Amino acid sequence: MAVEEGLPPLAPVPPPEVQRNIPPAEWELYIDAWIMLLSLRVEAPASQFREYAASDESTVTFLTSFYRQSINSSLFRSPTAPNTRSVRKLCFLLTRRFLLEVSPTPPELLDWRVLAGMCCCYPSSSALKRLLADAWDKHEDAITSSLEKAKVQAIRDLSSLNLSKPSGVLVDLRLLTILSSALPGCGQVLMAGSDFLDTVVDAYQAHKREDVRKVLVANVYVGLCSFLKSSKPNLSSLLDQLYGMKASAGVGTSTKKEPTLLSEVICSTDFLGRLDRHLSTDVHPQKRGQDLLASLRAYQAETQHLHRRYQKPRKRAVINKGKGRATEDDLLPKAAEDLHIHKMSLITQVQDLFPDLGTGYIARLLDHYNDDPETIVAHLLDDSLAPELQTLDKSESLPTPSPATTSHHDPFPPRSPTLTNTTTTAPPPQRKNIFDTEIDLAELARSDTDPNHPQTLRFGRANPTLTADSLLSDRTNHAAQKAAIMSALATFDSDDDERDDTYDVTDVGGTVDTTVAAEDEPKQSAPGAAEETELTLYRAYKSNPALFARDSATRRAQPRAALKRETGMTDEAIEGWAVMVARDPKRLRRLEDLVLDGNDRGGVNQPVLVPTAYRRGVEDGDAEDGSGGEMSSRGGRGGGGGGRGRGRGGRGRGGGRGGAGGAGAVTDSSGQNPAAARQRKEENKASRANHNRRQQRAKKVARAGGMVG
């Protein structure tokens, strides 16, 4: 009897809204029926299966509905249940037979949505990637035709995308991204040409929503990486697409930097790192690839602040130093800790496809096949395991010892109670410190009876019976004491006197300099360095006063630059010197005398002697400047003639009233020189009875005997 005559058809998987109305017990019966019918088809011989699959439309319909429903997370109510995992395993094995053994393969199973549903049903499965690669090699034209239709539809939907209306283009782009990640050939089909990529770039610029942009960036990133992940990397096509995106983003122009699809791809993903690794390991490196990578690196640095990275950098594994508190798991025997976490992940990969196999049996298979899960899956599918492995218990599980059955771990070293009682305890070690030899006054004993401690603090005489006669008659240490006294006297010179500073350098005009500088003092500049600099400035000031102008043109001129090099001063210092000299006529006269007396050199070494007479209110030696002896003695004084009046209208001498300002002005209100006015006043004092008043006061003081207060 033929197989197809005795097998009932498979009912397709109902949609989620129908599954919610099915009672749980009835749903379990449906799953058991699917498992039984799928097992019959998977275990059928190859010849009979090829004959049966040619006319078995129900199986193709079931697999198509199963994978299309796998896109939703609510395909089954309990995805981790044993019967659910059995259905997933049987569907994978049956699909593998249809794609690789049946000719011609049903076109429904080569549709891109079915292949994307398989990627959603078996995520991160190496067996699925291997199956898709084999199916691509065998049915590349059929899969490419389906992808081209999806590509055209996606371009049409993205061009007219309206987020206010429901649209399935974003869901389709997510599925295409998942499929391209598992099958690099699909990504290359999407990235072929410029129409799809240009449409995605326009959609990115048109829609500012973050969720939409994430879908577009993920699709382009996976599509570009597919050029590098295939068995024959297509670097030329990848560089062409990158140059097109670079031109669309306006890289290298002076426009304002805004987020673009290219900037988010290179800033939010590790695409540039992948490209750099591929270019560095390429046997035939391309010059334009290196140039493009350099320009993209520069563009990444300019737009890094506009994006955040999607792929978080991997954190370094924290090294367990074993300093934590011991737990119950730490008390288990060492045999339970030998199973590494890596082997557990390998066991999980195999058990996803063969849930009926025990973890212990899979661990034995991994030990036999050198931890290669793909080889194990291939042998299990072909039923070609080694004879010694077929006789083992397939439901064997890994041992899980309990802490209650293990002996308590004692962290202390073993010790014998008999030795503890019989052996003598060693004295504790004596503490030593580098400060043990120092003396602490707080710890000195107030006693003079301890001869072993010569540094003991005592009150009164250390030896009351010791007298001067006994000290003089004791000749035991006479030589040492005499040598110590002579050594102390040798360091003292009674002829040394304090240095006499009566004739100092300043007092004698700089002709004698008896001071000697110390060796470690820094060398000072020449005595006439400051005067020489000032004379240089004075010569320039007299020859060309415009050289000291405070404008940018003068500062950039060549004469100003030469003056700066000669004096070593800045522009501000040179201009400030000119301002201060213009306000100080006495300083100008002194500089002119220096130039005239010594032919620009004679008076340089002659120091200026500061007058030693006390002048009230004069700090700069400007007493002879015509301002009078009491010009600026107290604040609030001032006036035209430098009088002593306070405030406005105060009592004052001179030609002006007392002002509220601080110091007196240089000229009075009439523009006369106050020094000349004071001189005329002194000449005419006799005619104004001032002389007589002065004489009368002198007589009065004489009669009082100089006691006038």
UniProtKB/TrEMBL annotation:
Top-rank taxon, per record: Eukaryota
Biased composition (Polar residues): 397-406
Region (Disordered): 394-433, 598-709
SMART domains found in the cross-reference section: CUE (SM00546)
Sections of the chain in a coiled coil: none
GO molecular function ontology, one term from the record: ubiquitin binding
CDD domains tied to this protein: CUE_ASCC2 (cd14364)
InterPro entries hit by this protein: ASCC2, ASCC2_CUE, CUE, UBA-like_sf
Ranges of residues in domain CUE: 342-385
Biased composition (Basic residues): 688-702
Gly residues bias (residue ranges): 635-644, 652-664
Pfam families associated with the record: CUE
Protein known as: CUE domain-containing protein
Natural source organism: Aspergillus uvarum CBS 121591
Lineage, opening ranks: Eukaryota, Fungi, Dikarya, Ascomycota, Pezizomycotina
